């Protein structure tokens, strides 16, 4: 109960700061609109207000504060505006509609899940190779690290262009960019996990004359499970980011990334913010889902 | 008639480290007969664990020779000559006790039915009947170590090598397990190699006590125990017991300078 109160307090503080930030962010636009509508604002004329500080304008025109939370195209939309937009584009729209966020979220989610599956599979395979072969450890690991130092926003268009030129388009290029981001945490986590059995455990298997394959299936793989789940949680969030980023340079017409892009073209800040929130909610749901699977799996394995 | 199970002669093992060579074992000669209960005792660094690991082919000697059942340690391992018990139970948390005991059996390719029968048999041997379905965390430390002994016994090795198996347990549990180990030894007639740093434990359990000392790791005394095979815990208060314990202590003192 006490922790619920604490969580709500933090939430309330964030919302309060957000509302407060809307006032100076939006005041100039609001005053211009009000003046156009015939209201008396201080000082008069948009040119006179251009170089004035936002806080000074707020102080002189305090009657306009409530209007900063109700603009049609605010610089910073107020929380309730985003909430209303989210509500209207999810619950109030048919999910087949092009204006439904659920539709766009599904487009991004399908690429995310496909990329996550590819990235996880690739990550586990690489980790197995790295753990069992010194050559792979020395040759693959540095490249895996280098791959993550290149900004994905720079790489994504190239991947899409290259894939397009060999005839690959649709969901796959998005999934590959998403996999590009998600394989790395899996490699790092699985290498650590597969190496986690201590010397005594390895010696024990040696006394049974166990083959490397038996050691892998019976000891290394089960031991790595807690590490794998920690990696998967990071990996799925990266996958989602990858899928959204992949939608940006392609001029995609559907997906959360497309919503972000369209919103910024037409100055629809409320649409941008609701797409951002949709992405954040989607990511938390995915990570939460993995957390549940992790708890069940590790509990059944007696490791939680 | 006795048969020699383990025979070491002129055994040497030198580790090359950045601080120069470390002589873990030097000129070690020992014969272990079938059915012996041999304890290795000495201060840390005397090579007692290394010696046990050489018998199990977990370390390669750098000189001399050692045979287990007349074979090299590697061949003996392939013939499932020994079970090894480590200081920590090392049970897999994701397996039940029964499944943990099945681990070596699965690896060695025993049939499913045979596995079940063996698990039942060894659980009975270590007094853990009815605990097969439990997970390791549901058992006390002493019970976990008994389960790990059961695991080492499951594939019917003639030799049981134990590296301070009760070192991490408290003394009361330890006494109890020592008593049980003797009963188990009497019932199974295995040959047991047992590393310890407790003098009473070594004297209570062993038919043969090997006293070792460090720098270089070597054998300083081998004591054949005159105690009967049947040993209640009270035997530790008899003059014979105290006399052997005294000799072990003298051997340890002679081989080890505490001034260092």
Automatic annotation (TrEMBL), chain A:
The chain crosses the membrane at residues 103-131, 143-165, 227-250, 270-293. PROSITE patterns: ABC_TM1 (PS50928). It is a multi-pass membrane protein. GO terms for biological process: transmembrane transport. Residues 101-294 form the ABC transmembrane type-1 domain. InterPro entries: MetI-like (IPR000515), MetI-like_sf (IPR035906). Signal peptide: none annotated. It holds the Pfam family BPD_transp_1. The keyword Cell wall biogenesis/degradation does not apply. Its main location: membrane. It is found in: Cell membrane. GO terms for cellular component: plasma membrane. Keywords: Cell membrane, Membrane, Transmembrane, Transmembrane helix, Transport. Belongs to the binding-protein-dependent transport system permease family. This is ABC transporter permease. It comes from Pseudodonghicola xiamenensis.
UniProtKB/TrEMBL annotation, chain B:
The keyword Transport applies. Keywords: ATP-binding, Lipoprotein, Nucleotide-binding, Transport. CDD domains: ABC_NrtD_SsuB_transporters. Residues 6-235 form the ABC transporter domain. SMART domains: AAA. One of its GO terms (molecular function) is ATP binding. InterPro entries: AAA+_ATPase, ABC_transporter-like_ATP-bd, ABC_transporter-like_CS, ABC_transporter_ATP-bind, P-loop_NTPase. It comes from the Bacteria. Belongs to the ABC transporter superfamily. This is Sulfonate ABC transporter ATP-binding lipoprotein.
């Amino acid at each position: 109960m006490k922790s619920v109160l604490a969580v709500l307090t933090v939430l309330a503080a964030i919302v309060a700061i957000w509302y407060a930030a809307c006032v100076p962010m939006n005041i100039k636009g609001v005053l211009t609109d009000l003046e156009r509508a015939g209201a008396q604002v201080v000082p008069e004329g948009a040119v006179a207000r251009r170089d004035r500080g936002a806080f000074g304008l707020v102080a002189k025109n305090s009657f306009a504060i409530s209007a900063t939370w109700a603009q049609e195209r605010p610089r910073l939309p107020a929380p309730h505006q985003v909430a209303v937009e989210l509500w209207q584009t999810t619950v109030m729209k048919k999910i087949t509609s092009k204006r439904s966020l659920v539709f766009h979220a599904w487009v991004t989610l399908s690429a995310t899940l496909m990329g996550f599956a590819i990235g996880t599979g690739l990550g586990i395979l690489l980790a197995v190779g790295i753990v069992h072969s010194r050559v792979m450890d020395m040759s693959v690991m540095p490249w895996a690290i280098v791959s993550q130092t290149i900004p994905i926003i720079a790489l994504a268009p190239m991947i899409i262009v290259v894939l397009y030129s060999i005839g690959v388009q649709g969901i796959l290029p998005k999934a590959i960019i998403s996999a590009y981001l998600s394989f790395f945490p899996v490699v790092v986590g699985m290498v650590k996990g597969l190496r986690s059995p201590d010397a005594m455990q390895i010696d024990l298997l040696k006394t049974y004359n166990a083959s490397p394959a038996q050691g892998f299936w019976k000891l290394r793989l089960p031991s790595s499970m807690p590490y794998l789940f920690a990696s998967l949680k990071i990996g799925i969030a990266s996958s989602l980011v990858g899928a959204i980023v992949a939608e940006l340079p392609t001029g995609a017409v559907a997906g959360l990334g497309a919503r972000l892009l369209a919103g910024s073209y037409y100055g629809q800040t409320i649409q941008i913010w609701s797409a951002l929130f949709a992405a954040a909610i989607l990511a938390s749901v995915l990570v939460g889902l993995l957390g549940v699977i992790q708890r069940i799996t590790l509990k059944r394995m007696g490791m939680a | 008639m006795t048969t020699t199970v383990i025979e070491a002669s002129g055994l040497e093992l030198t580790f090359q480290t950045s601080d120069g060579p470390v002589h873990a074992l030097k000129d070690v000669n020992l014969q272990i007969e079938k059915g012996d209960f041999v304890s290795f005792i000495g201060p840390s660094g005397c090579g007692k664990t290394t010696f046990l690991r050489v018998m199990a082919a977990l370390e390669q000697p750098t000189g001399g020779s050692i045979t287990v059942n007349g074979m090299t340690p590697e061949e003996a391992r392939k013939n499932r000559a020994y079970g090894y018990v480590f200081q920590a139970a090392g049970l897999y948390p994701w397996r039940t006790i029964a499944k943990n005991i099945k681990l070596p059996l699965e690896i060695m390719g025993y049939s499913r039915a045979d596995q079940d029968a063996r698990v039942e048999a060894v659980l009975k041997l270590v007094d853990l009947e009815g605990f097969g379905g439990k997970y390791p965390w549901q058992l006390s430390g002493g019970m976990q170590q008994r389960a790990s002994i059961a695991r080492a016994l499951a594939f019917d090795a003639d030799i049981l090598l134990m590296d301070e198996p009760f070192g991490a347990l408290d003394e009361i549990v330890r006494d109890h397990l020592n008593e049980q180990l003797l009963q188990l030894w009497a019932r199974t007639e295995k040959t047991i190699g047992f590393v310890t740093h407790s003098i009473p434990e070594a004297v209570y359990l062993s038919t043969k006590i090997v006293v070792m000392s460090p720098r270089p790791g070597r054998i300083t005394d081998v004591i054949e125990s005159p105690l009967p095979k049947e040993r209640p815990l009270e035997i530790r208060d008899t003059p014979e017991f105290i006399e052997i314990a005294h000799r072990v202590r003298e051997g340890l003192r002679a081989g080890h300078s505490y001034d260092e």
